[in-house]
Amino acid sequence: xxTDDRTPIIVGVAQVEQREDDPAASREPLDxxxxxxxxxxxxxxxxxxxxxxxxxxxxxxxxxxxxxxxQVAERIGAIGAETGLTSLGxxxxxxxxxxxxxxxxxxxxxxxxxxxxxxxxxxxRARKAGLELAWNPLTRxxxxxxxxxDDGDAPEMFLGSSKVTRHEAEMKRGIQLPIQFYPMFETAxxxxxxxxxxxxxxxxxxLWAGFNKVAVDNPNAWIRKPISADYIRxxxxxxxxxxYPYTKLMNSNNSVDQGAALILTSIGKARSLGxxxxxxxxxxxxxxxxxxxxxxxxDNLHSSPAIxxxxxxxxxxxxxxxxxxxxxxxxxxxxxxxxxxxxEIGLTQDRALTVTGGLTFAGGPLNNYVMHSVARTVDLMRDxxxxxxxxxxxxxxxTKHALCIYxxxxxxxxxxxxxxQAEVDAMPRxxxxxxxxGSATVESYVVMYDAAGxxxxxxxxxxxxxxxxxxxxVTDLDTxxxxxxxxxxxxxGTIDGDGxxxxx
Length: 504
Known about the structure:
The structure is a single chain. By secondary structure, the protein is α/β, with parallel strands linked by helices. It has 2 domains: 8-165 and 254-425, Peroxisomal Thiolase, Chain A, domain 1 (3-Layer(aba) Sandwich); 438-503, CATH 2.40.50.840. The protein contains 15 helices and 18 strands. Strand 14 and strand 15 (455-463) form a beta hairpin. The radius of gyration is 23 Å and the shape is globular.
């Protein structure tokens, strides 16, 4: 067993929330981070560990703080601690945690605190009330970083990327949001599986109802009310259609105020601080990879070579397989993300694929969700010593992936990390037609709704005879309506010079 003094472990975890209805009286994300860190200190059995932390690292959120890690460090008494920050992306909790494990193992750091928090519910209520929040970003463009306050205190370490993830061809047709892309991944999965429109919707809603059942038993979940599959798939005033085939209850629930924190250290440091062994959870290995940055260039819309290669490498590094996993938490911003991950990893959908209930029911605090899934995994493992758990993280448009396997049992070998990017970059890549005038075949599509909940138009990914991909829009409402009842993938049509698609 790898029980060297430098072996990295998680010793403290915590999750917090607020449900204050008055945005003027609400605490801000920084307050939730501090509360979570303090509770994580208590969780490890030695709150004094906080003052000894030599690094505080924050996951970037939808707020305007310049260096929130510095403010957290000062408020917990970790004076002089290195500070860190990530860019936007749901992958960065696990990516930053992987990086921190390596820093501890190498001796570069002794105690690392990772935290994050969002107040999406308070932000929404403030907008409705016309209230300006001091910590709110000034601007927010799709795919771009929020405006930050330049307080002259930049973090010492940064993890992330400023790469633009939308292709010109997508943007030109008004396709840039997750609620447009993920339903297209879903439709592509349906077609690849050979499912009927109705049968597919029933299966996916049952998958999501299973996530809801997990949330009901999760004390930290935002929505713990039992919800049936029929209710999830049926549009209503309380469950409005967002982008077909998804209703509101198939989308990430960002209207939450939640924070979480992890405390990472080494075996040697934990022993010196008297932290009980029943608090220790070991990371066995971590892997990371990004799929092709532009959806336009991916070989297909229903798979993820990055998840496939990263999971294979993870099992190779740990010696585990899917049958060894006691718990699994697959990133769950939308049902498509779960299904693609399960397919690539080799997990069947008749087993539990979440420990939290997912971003719809447990809560979707944007980039910080995975900290909640890690914390929940740790709690479950402590209750069942010897168990093995997988956590996956996803950022962008099924783009950026980070994975890790945890256990209360020490690993046979030192913590290992691998990046599979070179292998993913070598995978097939499609050429893109920014403009196309002529025949095309529908590859996948999504129907969008207007504010009143009526079908408004459809976006379509299309393949040309030469293998290139292009994008188009359907505005004929009769066709748009039929696209929700019949399978249009594989059907031919004609695209005009303005990107309008007419189905033959």
